[in-house]
Write a structure and sequence with these properties.
4-stranded mixed sheet; alpha/beta; 19 helices; 21 strands; 5-stranded parallel sheet
């Protein structure tokens, strides 16, 4: 029989403002296995839901008193964020016959390929040559080729396929509608919609409902996408109608079931596929943002203690068209503020034609035979999308100008209070980023300065025009992308597991090809350097731990870490767009945060472990996209197009699997490293649906992955 002291501790935990920790404390109090703890927790949940045990929960968040619900929608899975990860989740869920509610802050699906304007696919050579991607990603690229009937509609040199963002949305949305028909699923699409509140169940371990706000133009006002995001974002998160917007208040709930209140395992799922990890912050699960402290998992970190304000730069992209005659160029009133920042960056790139064709997204045929950087030179009618580090990248990195507000900043601004969520971003940063992007266009066509290369490098290029209007490639009156391209977001800390006592995270050394015998790493503390060697030891790790010798890491770094719970794949360089050291970013003479680029370089092909998608505390909350559990350095590789799709596809298949088997996702990995039959069944389903979980010939028995580039 349990002691009164133990039971008292349990009830105290249940009454805490964060009762989601109950399961982990049960393990410590009673010495139970995770499986037994789940059964005990299930019984407790039933007792709570039946009223036999009363407990306060995390603050309940009904709709604001001055607004009533306009619509309630039931769904098997609520996907917040219609980017590539969210679209992939919806795609697989629809093919499985599920009912999907998909919300998106803009009116386009696709994220990177559409609303963020980065419609130049980032792919690694070996993966692309083998066309080794998830089935949905393959279907999308197939449809792209069929739509354009060209090898590369943009004739760009950053990618093998560059295209118009507006087409990316149209093609992908048609894919979702096709999946809905093929799988006999149901898609509820909610564009121009944001999640405002989350409501947990009595046990505090599941999201019970989500409240969202959908906005449309108020009568007599301009159409959506007239103003840039900074001018409208705060309005979209307010329940009240405004002079600009009419609001519809939506409630998302699980499908009704008589037995639902007695089912402790999740009855529906909420997926955070937003571009900044909004629901991660709103649900208040453990997460990180910015630079992580230097450890043997992230030995290239630029900070011994970490820096939550230094995130990677974000970018408002835009499209410009080459013209036959000089086009009138209007100098923005704010141009001089940002001009000291702009630069071609490198001498070999100090060429307008090179920059224009780098991400050229449309080049009508026939094309000139003369080439630059292996592609045809620009000619009238060509359209270029601009996404440039020392250009329209905006790179704040201090507590006074960071874009993604930290947990403390969210608390200080009241955004974690009921009805207080306003998107979790610094609006002033968005405004400056928009100005910086428009200023960069003017610099490209009329500027004569260069912050990095000096005088005499930059020449005017007046035969160009900024493309604006609802029928433009970006689909906005102002010409900027509907949403900025986000390279880094809030990243969850996964649940504790063997080897990850503080919570599961993918680190730099799990994927990097860096030479760890470089003097930089040899100068680390002896303990850190030794642990670094052990972490790279692979099958020899136990022997290395027992040895008193400091292992030589370089001969051990031959592949990325292989995860027994892999549910997807990715491959890209660790690629940084570092924050600037001083505020504001455009300050004359400003410089990149020292040391950030130390970790930059190639990676081995890597995997997406299921543990990286499961946050702490909440059992029906999953992460797809860039908010998976990675460190700052690893996240610089886990952020591109095909990775987002693979993570989203895994989430979609997982939701169907978990609902089929009445099992919570964390139960698939809670006994690792012991065998997990349900996990193996999920992996078989992923493979059967043509969603790979490992690259060919990459296993613990193959220690040479050098051919993968």
């Amino acid at each position: 029989m349990r002691s009164p002291k133990s039971f008292s501790r349990l009830t105290a935990l249940a009454a805490d403002r964060q009762p989601r920790r109950i399961r982990y404390d049960i393990l410590g109090v009673f010495g139970l296995s995770r499986k037994m703890a789940f059964k005990f927790h299930s019984t407790l949940a039933i007792l709570i839901s039946s009223g036999l045990i009363a407990t306060p929960t995390i603050a309940q968040v009904p709709v604001a008193s001055d607004r009533t619900l306009d619509q309630t929608i039931e769904c098997d899975v609520l996907v917040a964020g219609g980017g590539l990860a969210g679209s992939a989740t919806a795609y697989e869920s629809l093919l499985a016959g599920r009912t999907v509610c998909l919300t998106e802050i803009t009116d386009w699906v696709g994220g990177q390929i559409s609303s963020q304007g980065t419609s130049a696919l980032d792919e690694r050579t070996t993966q692309r040559d083998r066309n080794f991607f998830s089935r949905g990603y393959q279907e999308f690229t197939k449809r792209l080729h069929e739509a354009y009937k060209q090898e590369d509609p943009g004739d760009c040199w950053v990618s093998v396929f560059c295209f118009l963002p507006s087409d990316g949305h149209a093609i992908l949305f048609d894919m979702l509608k096709t999946a809905e028909k093929q799988g006999n699923g149901k898609l509820h699409w909610f564009p121009n919609t944001v999640i405002k509140d989350l409501n947990l169940d009595a046990s505090g371990t599941q999201i019970q409902r989500a409240i969202a706000i959908q906005h449309s133009p108020a009568p007599g006002t301009a159409p959506l996408n007239t103003e840039p995001l900074s001018q409208t974002i705060e309005d979209t998160y307010r329940y009240e109608d405004s002079d600009r917007f009419t609001k519809t208040i939506l409630q998302f709930i699980p499908p009704k079931s008589p037995a639902y209140s007695q089912i402790p395992t999740p009855h529906w799922y909420v997926i955070d596929a937003t571009e900044t990890g909004e629901l991660v912050a709103l649900a208040d699960v453990p997460y990180r943002v910015g630079i992580d402290p230097l450890t043997h998992y992230d030995p290239s970190s630029a900070s011994d203690t970490g820096d939550p304000y230094c995130t990677q730069g974000y970018t408002y992209t835009f499209a410009m068209e080459a013209t036959a005659e000089p086009h009138p160029q209007v100098k923005p009133e704010f141009y001089e503020q940002y001009a000291p920042y702009y630069s071609y960056e490198k001498p070999n790139l100090a060429n307008f034609d090179a920059l224009f064709t780098y991400r050229r997204i449309w080049s009508p045929e026939p094309r000139p035979t003369q080439q630059t950087f292996g592609v045809s030179i620009p000619h009238p009618g060509d359209i270029s999308m601009q996404n440039w580090t020392w250009g329209n990248d905006y790179r704040p990195g201090t507590a006074s100008d960071n874009l993604i507000l930290t947990h403390d900043q969210l608390q200080q601004t009241g955004q974690l209070e009921p009805h207080g969520w306003m998107g979790g971003l610094r609006v002033e940063s968005l405004r400056r980023a928009e100005e910086s992007a428009l200023g960069f266009y003017y610099w490209l066509v009329a500027g004569t300065t260069d912050s990095q290369l000096g005088d005499g490098v930059k020449k005017p290029q007046l035969n160009n025009r900024l493309l604006t209007g609802l029928d433009s490639p970006m689909g906005t009156i102002h010409g900027l992308s509907k949403y900025p391209y986000m390279r880094e977001v809030r990243r969850i800390i996964g649940r504790p597991s063997p080897g990850y006592a503080s919570g599961f995270t993918i680190g730099e050394t799990d994927v990097s090809r860096n030479d760890y015998t470089d003097p930089f790493y040899q100068s680390l503390s002896p303990e850190t350097y030794r642990n670094l060697g052990v972490s790279l030891s692979g099958l020899e790790a136990i022997a290395r731990i027992r040895s008193n010798e400091i292992p030589d890491p370089v001969r051990l770094r031959t592949r990325s870490r292989i995860y027994p719970d892999s549910v997807g794949i990715g491959h890209y360089n660790i690629d940084f767009h570092p924050c600037m050291a001083l505020s504001p970013p455009e300050l004359p003479g400003n410089y990149e945060y020292p040391g950030v680029r130390q970790g930059q370089g190639e990676t081995y092909p890597f995997q997406i472990p299921l543990r990286a998608m499961i946050p702490q505390r909440l059992d029906n909350f999953l992460i797809a996209g860039k908010s998976v559990a990675t460190s700052y350095i690893a996240a610089a590789a886990y952020r591109v197009h095909s990775f987002e799709w693979s993570a989203g596809a895994a989430a979609g298949v997982l939701v169907d699997f978990a609902l089929d088997r009445n099992i919570a996702p964390y139960q698939l990995v809670d006994d690792l490293p012991r065998a997990e039959p349900d996990l193996e069944a999920l992996q078989r389903r992923l493979l059967a649906t043509q969603n790979p979980i490992a690259f060919p010939n990459t296993s613990i028995f193959n220690l040479d992955w050098q051919d993968w580039r």
